[in-house]
Amino acid sequence: MSKNNDSNQFRKVDVDEYDENKFVDDEDNGESQVGPDEAEVDSLIRQGNLMEALQAVLKNPPINTKNQNVKDRAEALMLKVLSAFKSSDIEKAVQSLDKNGVDLLMKYIYKGFEKPSENSSATLLQWHEKALSAGGVGSIVRVLTARKTV
Amino acid sequence: MAYHSFLLEPISCHSWNKDRTQIALCPNNHDVHIYKKDGTKWTKIHELKEHNGQVTGIDWAPESNRIVTCGTDRNAYVWSLKGEVWKPTLVILRINRAARCVSWSPKENKFAVGSGSRLISICYFEQENDWWVCKHIKKPIRSTVLSLDWHPNNVLLAAGSCDFKCRVFSAYIKEVEEKPGPTVWGSKMPFGEGAGGGWVHGVCFSHSGNRLAWTSHDSTVQSDLSVSLSSETLPLLCVSFITENSLVAAGHDCYPVLFVYDGTKGSVTFGGKLDVPKQTSQRGISARERFQNLDRRATSSETTEQGLESLHKNSISQISVLEGGKSKCSTFCTTGMDGGMVTWDVKSLESDLKDLKIV
């Protein structure tokens, strides 16, 4: 095709970008979302008020933002809160969440599974079991089909 | 609740005739088979062979006794019964992808076909040329149209599509009908648009046309463009109103589920799982079995869930109202990927499952 100048640059063109039938998602400006408030959550953990910490960390989820840093920070914060809970308290904490809260918790849990660290998988699995009994398989389906995730 | 196994292959789609004695279904191949009811048995009386691709949608018009079928071969055929034989008439849909669903309008003077070409074809019969002509609805659909349902006024059409939206369009054809009166759906095209998180698998208008419900692949049921219920089940594939306030939906969980719509609170709530409760025999479990269960399943529980407890053994793909219409349905039927068809009786469901209430 480009034999006249031996160039292979055409192979680097992403032809799908130029397809006129390409599905473009509805853009949602998520720049205003900054993720949960770290200072507030940290202080609540230190005080031992874990239920409040859970509610706080579930506020302002960085769903729409494209900033990967915000998402990473939110995930790390979430993991800190989840690991701080005692196993026997997990069920009560999950019961205190509403449906959207359970869905959001599931999203964070699966996000946490993606990057396992030393003890994270064990705690996440315990949370997963309790969240599953609260939200049913539907909540997992929503994690899989969500196009804008934490 | 009668379960009849037609075949081993999935039933792609089905439709009943007016007096519910015959059912037309596609056994996952290029044909349509028509079965007739003989007491409790079903006998195949016709085979409609014309499509070159899998038949994805069948609709049997009750009054005019015509069947319209559409398939992955990008065609639709209208079949009329001439004597003892069904004769097809080709309808040129002008689509370049597979047709996915088809539905006669309430007055049966036109039908709509949803396809993978990101458009809906509204087809009507032109007397002068003696053939079926189609008009396209293209904007603003951006992906495959998976499901269609007509409003009772014969003009509005709800379409659920893979671009995660459910929309209400006007399919008004001036050659065949007069201008319709106003409805609750407003006056701007598209008349309504609801967004969700997943592909919209099933869509249904209520009997009066004032309510619209749809099910989506993210396991939600939504109603009236604003109210949504996240379900705890796997995604639901089909939905139908059985009264003005109750919906039955079914899908990958292999059992139908009841939802109740509350107009005053503007909410949809889960009403109950509709399935025949199985009488499990309680045997004592021996110590050996207990340890075997621990080995195999990591629990020593007694329930042996060897198979599904529901009547259908695979996903339910279509639900149709048999008697009573969408306002006071007394029986409805479901077909699925297990090749079986179940007829559900609403009265006996209400008496069997005690906390069920169908408003």
UniProtKB/TrEMBL annotation, chain A:
It is found in: Cytoplasm, Cytoskeleton. Keywords: Actin-binding, Cytoplasm, Cytoskeleton. Gene3D superfamilies: Actin-related protein 2/3 complex subunit 5. One of its GO terms (molecular function) is actin binding. Residues 9-24 have a biased composition (Basic and acidic residues). GO terms for biological process: Arp2/3 complex-mediated actin nucleation; regulation of actin filament polymerization. Its main location: cytoplasm. It comes from the Eukaryota. Functions as component of the Arp2/3 complex which is involved in regulation of actin polymerization and together with an activating nucleation-promoting factor (NPF) mediates the formation of branched actin networks. Arp2/3 complex plays a critical role in the control of cell morphogenesis via the modulation of cell polarity development. Belongs to the ARPC5 family. This is Actin-related protein 2/3 complex subunit 5.
From TrEMBL, chain B:
It is found in: Cytoplasm, Cytoskeleton; Nucleus. WD repeats lie at residues 48-82. GO terms for molecular function: actin filament binding. It holds the Pfam family WD40. It comes from Oncorhynchus tshawytscha (Chinook salmon). Keywords: Actin-binding, Cytoplasm, Cytoskeleton, Nucleus, Repeat, WD repeat. SUPFAM superfamilies: WD40 repeat-like (SSF50978). Its main location: cytoplasm. Signal peptide: none annotated. Functions as component of the Arp2/3 complex which is involved in regulation of actin polymerization and together with an activating nucleation-promoting factor (NPF) mediates the formation of branched actin networks. The lineage of its organism: Eukaryota, Metazoa, Chordata, Craniata, Vertebrata. One of its GO terms (biological process) is Arp2/3 complex-mediated actin nucleation. InterPro entries: ARPC1, WD40/YVTN_repeat-like_dom_sf, WD40_repeat_dom_sf, WD40_rpt. Belongs to the WD repeat ARPC1 family. The keyword Kinase does not apply. This is Actin-related protein 2/3 complex subunit. It comes from the Eukaryota. GO terms for cellular component: Arp2/3 protein complex; nucleus.
